[in-house]
Design goal:
mainly alpha
Amino acid sequence: MKVKKLMIELIGTILGAFIMAIAVSLFLLPNQLSSGGIAGIATITYYLLNLPMGIMIIAINVPLFILAIFKIGKSFFFKSMIGTITLSIFIDFLDKLQPLTNDRFLACIYGGIIIGLRNSNSS
């Protein structure tokens, strides 16, 4: 039973990362919009330093992962690593696709809705 619960959690984490990557790569990033948190910081560095966003997400999260191992536990660390790595891979993969809109207002609306779907999925 524990393995089944873990698999469901991992599938949910990967699905949430994919949904977030769609919003970021196909709506927000091409229209120079940023989301909040680490992805937002990575977006800023993407435009300032021209570094791949997925790599920046992982690099920024490394200190947080180290802290998480000691403060929160290995289970949380493992799940967070899976989510961050899959998000980074999906963002860098989807970044090669054409944006779905070049209208900033629509990109903001659609990106926000999709990120909201991801948040309701991971709750």
